[in-house]
Design goal:
By secondary structure, the chain is an all-alpha fold. It is built from 16 helices and no strands. Helix 4 crosses helix 12 and helix 6 crosses helix 9. The radius of gyration is 21 Å and the shape is globular.
Length: 392
């Protein structure tokens, strides 16, 4: 372990570097394939055994877990930033953090124009809730974290009943005029559909918002428990990592086997993913523990690549969208990609971002977009915050 590391801050950046790279694995699918391929794996991009191996790996270890990890770190960083403002003597830290997230909201709105899976807008809106909850009793926060994260499972049960065996809105729902359109699962499940109806749009919105809020609150709890500081003993992390991975892997496999047995029938489109959703918290906590152990074990020469990538997460997240948009929507929009071809693209982007993040952070204290965001946050003051605050 390198003794010159700022453990608390750099460990968070190290984990964030893993998260932002992991997010690309799933996001690239929607750029390169029909939306249905993200959920109904059999609908597109799965032509051979290699593609299916990739699908199993993605669903068990990446899908929903990397976004969960990213959300967890957003919650922790929210509290870190608020504490930093108070330590620096700002009289109205809550107003500053609201302004900061309003800027994030504007960026998210623009980003959403190019990328339907934008998460920045939701994060910015949820930050208002975090302001009211962040300093509550930790047991209450843990309860709310679990409740909101798993509320999407209850939601899946409810919404599955809205659709018939063919994936259309059921007659009961149509007769009740709950939704103005009559679109069923739409492009969520069928590769030949280009529309996502009101029912599935509502499901996505509530699902993502609840899971994000739940994991943000969990991040606040883990920060307050010093779990994100990499200061726990190795055996403590291992006690959480091993059972977390076992539970998460089993739950992920249950979902995938369920889909296979039912031949990806629309009847189980939402409910078959419930076990995988339940595996989010065990696997995300395991990732935090595993990353913390890796950060302590490997030398700064190698960990600095992920630390730098994490410090530039805002820049890297948005640049991933730009690269995906250029490659899949402009240059190769007519191509039919397989999963293995998309993974090759992902590996290339990983290498680029690891190298350029390391290069940039060796010369500057912040990523380019992080710098702009911070300058606007402080209303254009000519003030650089210290390097140790660069993960906030």
């Amino acid at each position: 372990m390198a003794s010159n590391k700022n453990t608390r801050i750099e460990n968070i950046d190290f984990i964030r570097g893993v998260a932002v790279l992991g997010i690309l694995v799933m996001n690239s699918l929607i750029f390169a394939l029909p939306v249905s391929a993200y959920f109904n794996h059999s609908s597109e991009g799965a032509t051979n055994i290699i593609d299916w191996i990739i699908i199993f790996f993605q669903e068990i270890f990446i899908s929903q877990k990397m976004m969960g990890l990213f959300s967890l770190l957003f919650g922790a960083s929210f509290v870190l930033f608020l504490e930093s403002l108070r330590i620096k003597g700002y009289k109205k830290p809550k107003l500053i953090i609201l302004w900061r997230n309003f800027i994030l909201l504007l960026v998210g709105v623009i980003h959403a124009y190019f990328w339907m899976g934008d998460i920045l807008t939701i994060y910015a809106i949820l930050s208002i809730i975090l302001l009211f909850l962040h300093n509550r009793n930790i047991l209450l926060l843990l309860f709310l974290a679990v409740f909101f994260t798993y509320f999407s499972s209850i939601l899946a049960l409810i919404f599955q009943s809205f659709f018939d065996s063919e994936g259309n809105l059921s007659k009961t729902i149509i007769e009740q005029s709950i939704f103005t359109d009559k679109i069923g699962l739409g492009k969520f499940w069928f590769s030949d559909s280009i529309i996502l109806g009101e029912a599935m749009s509502l499901y996505f919105l509530v699902d993502i918002a609840c899971r994000s809020l739940g994991m943000m609150l969990l991040g606040i709890c883990l920060y307050r428990l010093n779990f994100l500081s990499a200061e726990f003993e190795k055996k403590t992390y291992i006690k959480l990592i091993i059972p977390g991975f076992i539970v998460g892997i089993i739950l992920g496999l249950i979902s995938l086997v369920w889909y296979q047995i039912e031949d990806y029938s629309p009847e189980i489109a939402l409910i078959a993913n419930i076990p995988n959703k339940i595996g989010i918290i065990p696997l995300v906590v395991s990732y935090v523990g595993l990353c913390s152990l890796l950060y302590k074990k490997i030398s700064n020469k190698y960990s600095s690549y992920l630390v730098s990538t994490g410090r530039m997460a805002f820049t890297n997240y948005l640049s991933q969208t730009i690269l995906c948009f250029i490659i899949f929507n402009l240059l190769f929009s007519s191509n039919n990609f397989s999963r293995k071809e998309i993974i090759i693209f992902v590996f290339i982007i990983w290498i680029i971002q690891l190298i350029w993040s390391k290069y940039w952070m060796s010369r500057f204290n912040q990523g380019p977009l992080e710098f702009i965001w911070r300058k606007i946050t402080y209303l254009g003051k000519n003030k650089w915050l210290p390097r140790q605050d660069s993960n906030l």
